Amino acid sequence: MRQWVWVPAKVSNFPIIDPSNGRHVRDHAGIDADEAARRVSAAHEAWQTWRHTTFAERSKVLIAAAAALRSNVDTLADRCTREMGKPITESRAEIEKCAWVCEYYAEHAESMLADEVFPIEHAEVRVVRRPIGVLYAVMPWNFPFWQVFRAAAPNLMAGNAMVLKHAPNTMGCGADITSILSDAGGPDGLFADLPIDVADSPSVIRHPSVRGVTLTGSDAAGRAVASEAGAQLKKCVMELGGSDPYVVLADADIELAADRCVSSRMLNCGQVCIAAKRLIVVDAVYDQFEAAVLRRMSAIEMRDPMDEASTLGPMAREDLRDHLHSQVQRSLAAGASCLLGGEVPNQAGWWYPPTVLAGVAPGMPAFDEEMFGPVACLVQATDADDAIRLADGTSFGLAGAVFTNDAARGTRIACNDIDAGCVAVNDFVRSDPRVPFGGARSSGFGRELGCAGIHEFVNLKSVVTAARTDA
Questions:
Q1: Where are the alpha helices (DSSP H) in 187-343?
Q2: 286: number of CA atoms within 13 Å, CB side?
Q3: Per residue of the chain (471 residues), what is the pLDDT tens digit?
Q4: Is 247 in contact with 418 (CB distance < 8 Å)?
Q5: Of 80, 236, 273, 377, which residue is the catalytic one?
Q6: Pairwise CA distance, residues 450 & 111, whole Å
Q7: Is residue 235 helix, strand or coil?
Q8: Regarding beta strands 444-445 and 235-239, do their DSSP bridges make them parallel or antiparallel, or are they unpaired?
Q9: Closest listed residue to residue 250, CA positions, set 436, 359, 149, 381
């Protein structure tokens, strides 16, 4: 067996910048290769104990974590907002959702992972699902608590351990999560954060104690991490980006459709993988829908994210804001028109205004790429068939929606025509602990949440016990 060797990148300290004003808050200390390897090994040792605990014992840890999340909601929400910029009310809602996912799997994991027993000729078959070991989680900054807990809760209840590489700008959130789970009562080292450079991820994946990898991020990051995991023959789940189509048909309730589309597009300053990104509207109702979207987008104000009334904070990082603006400018150069916004404000921080682009078509960044920010992209379609064709006209397949007053028709389109992992009818897509979540095509593979999510990183083992023939 080839010996594992860590190839360390330079140890980094990670600067934490307040997105609302661009000021340096502090540096988060990184760790060196030896410490990272020690934490992975410690997680493996913890797993050796954790894998043999009962579901009742595991659930106590998750319930304690949920209680800690709720009792510290203000402190945790403050950290979230100051590290990545979302409005404080959205940060509190995120912490509450993390408590919910912990409680959900604490209650349902045992039934989800129950043994199946059935007879075959002269034998009894028992199909069991058992934990596989240490998982490496590579997580993004946009929902710095939720993205982690939605992976950690089912996998800890399944009996696995986890090490986390969080995004550089939300390392403080990663440390908070580790503290919460460490104090909740599991064995030491069961969950650990690895404040390391992205260049060190391949070495973590190659570590012999790491048995699986879960990533939420861009398709570029997914390709790199999945390639390394595949080379090591390690299971992975990839939840990647999207250019999510929201289709508005001629018989839709236009005010409802506009309300849901704008709400989805502007949540988290538009930095949501399942947000309404391409609003594809048939000719018959296009003008009416455009006017309804403009009314709503024009009413949204950029405000200090610590203000209780804020619904639109800054973007998380300067480079992300600048990339979004470049996409807008390149789309305009390719023939789109700007109906609202589209200019970088002259103020400190990584702000970008509510923006509406019209005349968006294939070949433009606003159509082909993921627009991760507060930009609504209007796409005009001749009819329903054309709208569906445009909906599937990118390489992505994460989420989508259909708006129509014929719910049965909308459901048929959602089930059979839109090639995505999550599709809503007359609403926007949300993640929910009870519902499988994930994408297709360039938006990734595998599932989180629901029963499917807890089944991703278990060994499905068939045990065949022959009947005695000498009795």
A1: 201-206, 219-231, 254-266, 283-298, 318-333
A2: 16
A3: 345 666 555 677 999 999 999 999 999 999 998 999 999 999 999 999 999 999 999 999 999 999 999 999 999 999 999 999 999 999 999 999 999 999 999 999 999 999 999 999 999 999 999 999 999 999 999 999 999 999 999 999 999 999 999 999 999 999 999 999 999 999 999 999 999 998 899 999 999 999 999 999 999 999 999 999 999 999 999 999 999 999 999 999 999 999 999 999 999 999 999 999 999 999 999 999 999 999 999 999 999 999 999 999 999 999 999 999 999 999 999 999 999 999 999 999 999 999 999 999 999 999 999 999 999 999 999 999 999 999 999 999 999 999 999 999 999 999 999 999 999 999 999 999 999 999 999 999 999 999 999 999 999 999 999 987 765
A4: yes
A5: 273
A6: 12
A7: strand
A8: antiparallel
A9: 381
Place of tokens 């980006």: 241
Query: For the packed helices 171-183 and 55-71, what is the interaxial angle rounded to 10 degrees?
Result: 130
| Positive or negative torsion for Cα 397, 362, 323, 257 | negative
Query: Is 273 known to be catalytic?
Result: yes
Distance CA 135, CA 216 (A): 14
Distance CA 146, CA 150 (A): 6
The conformational region for residue 390 under phi > 0 = left, psi -120 to 50 = alpha, else beta, is alpha
What amino acid occupies position 183?
D
- Catalytic site residue from 239, 369, 370, 448: 239
- SS3 category, 250: coil
Distances from the Cα of 14 to the Cαs of 26, 167, 172, 204, in angstroms?
Answer: 8, 10, 10, 19
**Please, what are the domains in the chain?**
13-240+439-463 (3.40.605.10), 245-425 (3.40.309.10)
Which ranges constitute the DSSP H helices of 299-433? 318-333, 365-368, 384-391, 407-416
How far apart are alpha carbons 277 and 273 in whole angstroms? 9
SS3 142: coil
The runs of H, that is alpha helices, within 113-266 are: 146-157, 171-183, 201-206, 219-231, 254-266
What are 117's strand-pairing partners? 126
Give 205's contacts (C-beta < 8 A, 6+ positions apart).
136, 213, 225, 228, 229, 232, 234
Q: Which amino acid, residue 438?
A: G
In the annotation, is 448 catalytic? no
The C-alpha torsion from 82 through 86 and 91 to 93, rounded to 10°, is: 170
Q: Which of 171, 220, 210, 181 is nearest to 69 (CA)?
A: 181
